[in-house]
Amino acid sequence: MNAPTGRLVESLTLPQPYLLFLGDTTEAGFAKTAFGLADWAPDRCVGEWAAAGCTVTTGLPLLSPAEAKAAGARSLVIGVANQGGVIGESWIAVLVDAMEAGLDIVSGLHARLGAVPALAEAAKRTGRRLIDIRTPPADIPVGTGRKRTGKRLLTVGTDCALGKKYTALALHRAFAARGLDADFRATGQTGIMIAGGGMPMDAVVSDFEAGAAEMLSPDAPDDHWDLIEGQGSLFNPAYAAVSLGLLHGSQPDVFVVCHDPSRSVILGLEDFALPSIEEVIDLTIRLGRRTNPAIRCVGVSLNTSRYSAEAAEALMAAERERLGLPVADPIRGGPGFAALVENCLG
């Protein structure tokens, strides 16, 4: 039980730069991989492309696979994170076209690219690679619950696809700007593509979730921070198991609740109401105490992308007063975010 946890291999070599593929997506929340790469790794993205019916855009130049190849792209990244992680039928012709144009295909979906006969045949014919990101390392141990050295922050959410990754990345950037020893620990496909390594938590067999989180964030010096990207929600009827395993294995000293105030129901499961921020704080503390009795909430991250600057600030001010915690939108920054950072370190 007291054996040290193994260390995750943290390097991932992908053919860059990317052409981002948006599929036939009509809901921005399901294109979070494309948006994450466009926002946090813009220097590695040459443009975007989509299948018929797509209504979302990252704002990058619209380039066909052949145009992207001419612009220097080396791979097409499937920028969609849909329910079930499936490859849409309408995408296949586009993916084949991309390989014929000279691009490798990179996917973070649950479905394996090589399991689609048309893609496997095209890859063999063109000599292009099919690269699946959502592949956990071999020999993940079960969790031990052993208290590890170092400091850890976990982002948790009221729902999926509302800012857990962005919040962890923004906090990591703020910690680094202060000269702190800190790592961003990616737990999903987009974060792994941005960071160059990580653990695809939702592809891990459930018995090994906590062990995978322990591998992701091993023993570290006492002044080292791991900023751990959260997954799912403890209240999500489909994905709560991943969230709980990550919580127990991460053993966070502090956590930040991420919330989209424009939502009232769970994304993709509209029969279920969104939990309140207070409910998330309470349940995270009660469950998190199992592996870290000192766990505490240090603030709230609001996704105010649907609000004007004035409305967003008024909402955050009201929530600070109501909750008695720092409340900020990490993308907007400002004094509210600086206060959140200070409370993380306090």
Domain count: 2
CATH superfamily of the largest domain: P-loop containing nucleotide triphosphate hydrolases
Major beta-sheet overview: 6 strands, parallel
Cross-sheet strand order for the largest sheet: 7-8-6-9-12-13
Distance between the termini: 31 Å
What percentage of the residues does DSSP assign to strands (E)?
15-25%
Q: Any low-confidence stretches, pLDDT <50, length ≥5?
A: 1-10
Q: Mean pLDDT, as a whole number? A: 94
CATH topology of the largest domain: Rossmann fold
Which shape, going by the Cα principal axes? globular
Protein traits:
346 residues; 13 strands; Rossmann fold; alpha/beta; disordered N terminus; five-stranded parallel sheet; 11 helices; 32% helix; 2 domains; six-stranded parallel sheet
What does this structure look like?
- Residues 49-136 form the D-glutamate N-acetyltransferase-like N-terminal domain.
- Residues 142-335 form the D-glutamate N-acetyltransferase-like C-terminal domain.
- This is EBNA-1 nuclear protein.
- This protein is α/β, with parallel strands linked by helices.
- It has 11 helices and 13 strands.
- It has 2 domains: 18-132, NAD(P)-binding Rossmann-like Domain (Rossmann fold); 151-345, P-loop containing nucleotide triphosphate hydrolases (Rossmann fold, 3-Layer(aba) Sandwich), CATH 3.40.50.
- The protein has helices spanning 32-40, 65-70, 92-100, 117-126, 164-177, 189-195, 209-216, 240-250, 277-288, 309-323, 335-345, and strands spanning 18-21, 45-49, 75-78, 104-107, 130-132, 151-157, 182-185, 225-228, 254-259, 265-266, 269-273, 296-302, 327-328.
- A 6-stranded parallel sheet has the order 7-8-6-9-12-13, with helices on both faces. A 5-stranded parallel sheet has the order 2-1-3-4-5, with helices on both faces.
- Strand 1, helix 1 (32-40) and strand 2 form a beta-alpha-beta unit.
- The two termini are 31 Å apart.
